[in-house]
Design a protein that fits this description.
Layout (H helix, E strand, L loop, with lengths): L17 H16 L13 H31 E4 L3 E7 L2 E6 L2 E4 L5 E7 L4 E5 L2 E4 L5 E3 L4 H4 E3 L5 E12 L2 H6 L4 H18 L3 H6 L1 H19 L3 E12 L5 H70 L1 H16 L7 E3 L6 E3 L6 H8 L1
Antiparallel strand pairs: 1-4, 2-3, 2-5, 6-10, 7-8, 9-10, 10-11, 12-13
Length: about 375
């Protein structure tokens, strides 16, 4: 059967694909084992006809074998890369190219293809392991203390649990540069974390998880790039940062004492902020009152001085008139405040009370 028999009935030639070749191969096999299906006619009878059939049968068997070999060759020549994957094609064991998602071609027995998942985010856990991932995940921490216990810069022991998430960014480096990339990620992560925490104080590590995770991510990526591991650090997440279980009670007591100290300091600052401005305001008020009193007394003294000098000037001009005027003015101020007035004679022999005309009502009430 020729390729022309496989052309579409509407005319025009097209290049046969693997599907067309397989369909033709199936038809060939059917014709080999069922000659009547092809509508062929055998000519002649007797031995001559048997020899012809025997020779034809051997030729057909070789054709079937060749077709199977060709099918296996074609089947081995094409491969499919799924989305999120990349194929690394090796030719005679040496890197040749990277195959993108979709249908790709390779030379059988010459090219070798390795599929690498570049989309999935992988993770490594330190200080614990996830036993069951669910809405309420279950974790195991026993036996992993060697990974999580570290020494801080002020020589205190701290328990750090963290997760490193990474993704493959270069499949060639991932496959051939480092023998065991997950183990390299674990070793470098632990090394970087211990170095960073070794340069920080205990209290700083407890209160700055974000800073620690950011520094860890940057330095880990730098080290992985230097090894050409072909991975990209997606995220470093600190799960738990606590003192070891053996010292947790003492640590809690220290925290309580520290909280009490901060509370007392805050209360003292509150009292200071309330009393000191009040005292300053009172002191300023007293100072201003004293200054006002001083100004008042000085002005009054100056006024009395000026008044006295004016009176003295008039007194020098008319002593008798001024003296009597001063006497009358003084009595005019004093008399209204006196309730009872007595007149005494020159020799002080008798006392004559002066009729009090300023209190008529009181006298009338006493008379009744």
């Amino acid at each position: 059967m020729s390729w022309d028999e496989q052309q579409p009935p509407w005319g025009g030639k097209q290049n046969p694909g693997p599907e067309d070749f397989i369909a033709a191969l199936i038809r060939k096999i059917k014709e080999t084992f069922d000659p009547d299906a092809a509508g062929g006619q055998r000519g002649g009878n007797g031995n001559g006809g048997k020899k012809t059939a025997s020779g034809a049968g051997g030729g057909k068997l070789m054709l079937v074998i060749a077709a199977l070999v060709a099918f296996a060759f074609i089947n081995a020549s094409f491969f499919t890369i799924e989305p999120g994957q990349q194929g690394v094609v090796l030719r005679f064991g040496k890197f040749s190219r990277i195959a993108s998602p979709g249908l790709n071609f390779k030379i059988p027995m010459v090219d070798q293809m390795i599929k690498v998942d570049v989309k999935t985010v992988r993770k490594e856990e330190f200080g614990f392991r996830t036993r069951k991932a669910a809405r309420r995940s279950q974790f195991a921490k026993r036996g992993y203390e060697a990974e999580s216990l570290m020494l801080t810069g002020d020589k205190n022991v701290i328990d750090v649990e963290w997760i490193v998430q990474y993704r493959i960014k270069d499949p060639v480096d991932y496959l051939f540069r480092v023998g065991d990339v997950p183990e390299a990620v674990r070793d470098l992560s632990e090394k970087v974390m211990r170095r960073i925490i070794g340069n920080m104080d205990f209290d700083y590590v407890l209160g700055n998880r974000d800073v620690l995770a950011s520094a860890m991510s940057r330095e880990l990526q730098r080290d992985l790039d230097s090894y050409r591991s072909g991975v990209d650090v997606v995220k470093v997440q600190l799960q738990d940062v606590n003192p070891p279980d053996a010292v947790k009670p003492a640590f809690n007591e220290v925290n309580e004492a520290d909280q009490d100290m901060k509370r007392l300091v805050n209360e003292a600052e509150e009292t200071y902020n309330r009393q000191i401005p009040k005292a300053r305001g009172t002191a300023k008020q007293r100072i201003q009152e004293a200054q006002g009193y001083a100004v008042e007394r000085i002005n009054k003294a100056r006024g009395d001085t000026v008044r006295f000098l004016d009176i003295y000037k008039e007194y020098r001009l008319a002593k008798d008139v001024t003296r009597k005027r001063m006497y009358l003015e003084t009595m005019q101020k004093v008399m209204p405040r006196i309730k009872e007035i007595y007149i005494m004679d020159k020799d002080q022999r008798s006392i004559l009370p002066l009729l009090n005309l300023n209190q008529p009502r009181a006298n009338s009430a006493a008379a009744r």
